[in-house]
Design a protein that fits this description.
The chain has 394 residues and is an alpha/beta fold. The protein has helices at residues 14-23, 52-57, 97-110, 159-165, 223-232, 281-301, 308-334, 337-345, 349-358, 365-371, 375-385, 389-393, and strands spanning 3-10, 31-34, 49-51, 67-71, 73-77, 82-86, 92-95, 114-116, 121-124, 139-143, 146-155, 170-180, 187-192, 201-208, 211-218, 238-249, 258-259, 263-265. The strands form three sheets. Strands 1, 2, 8, 9, 10, 11, 17 and 18 form an eight-stranded mixed beta sheet that branches. Strands 6-5-13-14-15-12-16 form a seven-stranded mixed beta sheet, with helices on both faces. A three-stranded antiparallel beta sheet has the order 3-7-4. The longest helix has 27 residues, at 308-334. Bound molecules: flavin-adenine dinucleotide (FAD).
Length: 394
């Protein structure tokens, strides 16, 4: 007979752990999180850039040792132009993802969640089964540690899960930990270049003085070659002390977050990362929380239809913003370097002041439309997006 849990969660990162924490908030459900890596939070493949507001909504007050840097400036560049944004009002920080994930794991464990590392989920039965002595259970989960059964299964396996179904909108990224004098403490850098990073950009996230995470992503690029050339362009020596390569997903959310009335998909696995920047700590974390609450309610009401509240509430928060981000993505994928330069050249000082004023790290399309809002910008957008431009501006 297989071990029974009310809920089995595959993937012990931000979305899976937050779902686990929420389901067990009332303390009466058995929940296990299975993580295939040997350690929660490791290997860290994330830039860790988040807003303090976002963290608060996730129920995490980052302790000082989790905060690697406060971000008060951002330099955004096209191949030939750049502008600086003052981001102080947005309360952005760079977090140590290893510590964040472990912090949430501890919150979940204190609610009664069991976390098992080096335990890989291999498959979930499609068939509904009634397991002896567990009338509520109906799914068999095959893992590297044998078979388990559960009532609800949560897929929080990240982009890996998405790749199994569809590769559309998945880009390869590389992110290195770098020591270099050109990394300025508190200043994020974003470099657009259609030829070098098609559909995406290169970035620097400082974690201290002369220390930071330097990354690139793009459609069809070789991240190692692109990173070497990006860091080489800085003209001064640097040392790479850690290298990580990972896929990112920018295709937007999948159609259904629930299947068979008992399987729930959350986080990167559901495409819930921002289509502009692939940032997902906040939107994926919120998905975990909303899914966890819906599962808890489904138990309480003995009605799996309640699970759909999760999809409804996540879309209620993110649908419009993500739709606009998908339009910006279309621009990013089609714009050439000459047009990109024209666009950056047209950004005035008053626009920059306005962007800094409205800010919005988690919901940033209002600020982005300011960049495209000049006469030149609108002309460019119209040429690329046609009538859809209206959807971006309303
Ligand atoms: C280079 C890079 C930089 C990023 N920078 C930022 C940033 O600055 N800010 C931001 O907000 N977001 C950033 N992101 C995105 C962010 O990391 C993700 O959106 C977020 O981690 C998604 O969380 P998740 O729990 O859904 O999935 P993941 O964090 O991907 O976690 C999935 C977990 O499932 C586990 N797993 C996979 N398969 C199995 C299996 N079969 N069985 C058991 N476990 C399994 C994995 O080991 C992993 O622990 C970045 C991503 C990348 C790649």
């Amino acid at each position: 007979m297989s071990d029974y849990f009310d809920v089995i969660i595959a993937g012990g990162s931000v979305s899976g752990l937050l779902a686990a924490r929420e389901i067990t908030a009332l303390g009466n459900k058995s929940v296990i999180v299975m993580e295939e890596d040997p350690e929660i939070g490791t290997p860290q493949h994330c830039g860790g850039l988040v807003s303090m507001d976002g963290m608060k909504n996730l129920g995490v007050i980052p302790p000082p040792n989790m905060i690697e840097a406060k971000i008060n400036q951002a330099k955004i560049s096209s191949p030939s132009y750049s502008f600086n944004l003052n981001t102080e009002g947005q309360n952005i920080i760079a977090l140590d993802r290893r510590l964040l994930d472990k912090h949430i794991a501890l919150q979940a464990q204190r609610n009664g969640v069991e976390i098992r590392t080096r335990c890989s989920v291999r498959s979930v039965s499609e068939k509904k089964l009634n397991v002896d002595n567990n009338p509520g259970s109906s799914q068999i989960v095959k893992t590297s540690e044998g078979d388990f059964s559960c009532k609800f299964f949560v897929d929080a396996r990240g982009v890996a899960s998405m790749i199994q179904n569809n590769r559309h909108g998945i880009f390869q990224s590389g992110q290195y930990e770098v020591y270099a004098s050109w990394i300025e403490n508190g200043k994020v850098e974003v470099q657009f270049d259609r030829d070098k990073y098609p559909g995406f950009f290169a970035w620097i996230i400082p974690t201290g003085f002369g220390v930071g995470k330097v990354g690139v992503a793009g459609n069809g690029i070789n991240p190692a070659t692109a990173l070497k050339s990006y860091m080489g362009s800085k003209g001064e020596k640097y040392s790479v002390v850690r290298k990580v390569y990972a896929p990112i997903c920018v295709s937007g959310p999948i159609e259904n977050f629930i299947s068979d009335g008992q399987k729930v998909v959350v986080g990167d696995a559901a495409g819930q990362t921002k289509p502009t920047t692939a940032g997902g700590i906040y939107s994926c974390g919120m998905a975990g929380i909303l899914a966890g609450r819906a599962i808890s309610n489904a138990f309480e009401k003995n009605d799996s239809n309640v699970l759909w509240n999760y999809q409804q509430s996540w879309l209620g928060i993110f649908h419009d913003e993500f739709n606009k981000m998908l339009l910006v993505r279309r621009l990013l994928e089609r714009i050439d370097n000459k047009t990109l330069d024209q666009l950056f050249h047209s950004v005035s000082q008053s626009t920059i002041r306005e962007i800094c004023r409205i800010g919005g790290f988690d919901f940033h399309t209002a600020a982005l439309t300011k960049i495209f809002g000049s006469r030149q910008g609108i002309k460019i957008m119209k040429a690329i997006l046609g009538n859809e431009i209206r959807r971006l501006l309303i």
